[in-house]
Design a protein that fits this description.
The protein is built from 2 helices and 7 strands, in the order ββββαβββα. A hairpin with an 8-residue loop joins strand 2 and strand 3.
């Protein structure tokens, strides 16, 4: 490493796009900055010793009460733009799952509330780059 090179702290996260056959998506309202009060996909940090797949299933359950097996999650892609999060460098692996219409949700953990949104009537703006993640999931699943 040369004197001009620097290390960058990178945080590793997982996000989940949960869809129903009725073309609804599960979103949480963020209860903390950044984007406090904005709607977002369920997700969060990958814990030490944990895979992003396991983190996705865990975060989904903690934030919405929805339990899916890791086998039910399909990887959509990786989002790693340097400016995707105002807190610093965050790299996320995004997953998608399809659950039955009427799946019960309960906001928990860091979510103010959780809600099913029709894909044709989404909030005006989603937090971070979650609109791009959602679009990629819809294109590959529905």
């Amino acid at each position: 490493m040369t004197e001009t090179e620097t290390f960058e702290t990178i945080r590793y996260t997982a996000d989940v796009v949960v869809l129903t056959p009725a073309r609804e998506v599960l979103l949480i309202q963020r209860g903390w900055p950044p984007h406090e009060g904005a709607w977002a996909l369920p997700g969060g940090h990958v814990d030490a010793g944990e895979t992003s797949l396991a983190a996705a299933a865990r975060e989904l359950q903690e934030e919405t009460g929805v339990t899916v097996t890791t086998d039910a999650l399909r990887q959509i892609g990786v989002w790693d733009a340097p400016d995707r999060d105002p807190r610093g460098r965050y790299i996320t692996v995004a997953y998608a799952a399809v659950v039955p219409v009427g799946t019960t949700i309960t906001a928990g953990d860091d979510a103010r509330t959780a809600r099913w949104w029709p894909l044709d009537a989404l909030p005006e703006r989603l937090a971070f780059d979650h609109a791009a993640i959602l679009n990629a999931a819809v294109a590959s699943i529905l």
